[in-house]
Amino acid sequence: MLGRWKGAYDTTKRMKQSGSSKNDVLARTHTIYVENGNGTFNLMQEWDKVRDQPRYMSQVGGNTRSDRKDASKKKGKGKSSRTGKAEALEIVEEDWDEYKQFKKKEFKRLDKIVLAQQEVAKAHQEATRVQEEASRIKLEAIRAKKMKLFMKLSFKEHLDDYNKQVLEMLKVELFDN
C-alpha cells in the first residue's frame, strides 16, 4: 500500500506546479491514488514517519529548480540588494561591451564585403566597356574594308554584272544609312 502511495506521490511531484504547497501535493496524491483504484489512503501517520527513509524517498524531489530558486532568493536576501544590483549591472555592462565588440567586428566584415562587391561591379563594368569597345573597333574595321572595296570597284572602268551588284550593295550599305 505504501509503495502505491509512493508512486502516486512521485507522479504528483513530477506534475507539481509552481506555487503548489505541501498540502496541494498531498491532495493531488490522494486523487491520483484513488483514481488508480487503490481506495482511500489511511496511513498518513505512517507515511510521515517513513517518507524520509531511502526506500520511500521521492525519486523526483531533491533539489529541483524551484527549490534552488527559493534557496538563492533566501541567500540573496542576506546580502544588500544594492550589491546584487551592482553585480547584475556589471554583468549586463560586460555583456553589452562584448556585444558592441562583436558588432564592430561584424560591421568591419560587412564593410569588406561591400568593398569587394564594389570592386567586382567595377571590374564587370570595365569588362563590359572593353567588350563594347572591341565590338565597335571590329565594326569600324569591317566598314573600312567595305569602303576600300567600294573605292576599288568605283575606280574600275569595266565591271561585270556581279561586281556591279556588289558596288550597288556597298553604296546602299555605306551611304544610305
Automatic annotation (TrEMBL):
Chain intervals with Basic residues compositional bias: 71-82
Coiled coil as UniProt keyword: yes
Signal sequence range: none
Keywords in alphabetical order: Coiled coil
Coiled-coil regions, chain positions: 113-140
Region Disordered, annotated ranges: 1-23, 56-85
UniProt protein name: No apical meristem-associated C-terminal domain-containing protein
Species: Lithospermum erythrorhizon (Purple gromwell)
